[in-house]
Design brief:
Distance between the termini: 34 Å
Order of helices and strands: EEEEEHEEH
Strand content: 25-35%
Strand order of the largest sheet: 5-4-3-6-7
Number of helices: 2
């Protein structure tokens, strides 16, 4: 799958600069505040993606013992700009929110909890 242009909303490497209120980017820029992740999530690495005719997406997990996950068409349509690719992670947060994360970003931010 060609992913070029599908994740253009993601920031480029390096610090993200934003302009201060009332100033142009050239006049006065500041780095966004930094946050460290301290939450627990459920996640599976994506082995395969099946785009279904009715608009749903079936995620085949890389890890054995887990059934494929069907993502609702409404979610797929709403999050189309963050279209996942094989090797990314399907992530579910404690509040039930579901998302996708590129492998490099996910693996830098999370360590597997045994059990």
């Amino acid at each position: 799958m060609d992913t070029e242009g599908l994740v253009t909303h993601m920031k480029p490497p390096g610090p993200r600069l934003v302009r201060k209120e009332g100033k142009s980017m050239d006049e006065n820029t500041v780095m966004l505040p930094k946050y460290k992740c301290h939450k627990e999530v459920g996640a599976l690495k994506i082995k395969d993606l099946i785009w279904n005719v009715e608009g749903t997406l079936t995620i085949v997990p890389e890890e054995a013992g887990f059934a494929p996950i069907v993502v609702a068409a409404k979610y797929v349509h709403t999050h189309d700009a963050l279209r996942p690719t094989v090797g990314w992670y399907f992530v579910e947060y404690e509040d039930g929110y579901q998302s996708f994360s590129p492998a490099e970003a996910f693996e830098k931010g999370y360590t597997r909890i045994p059990g």
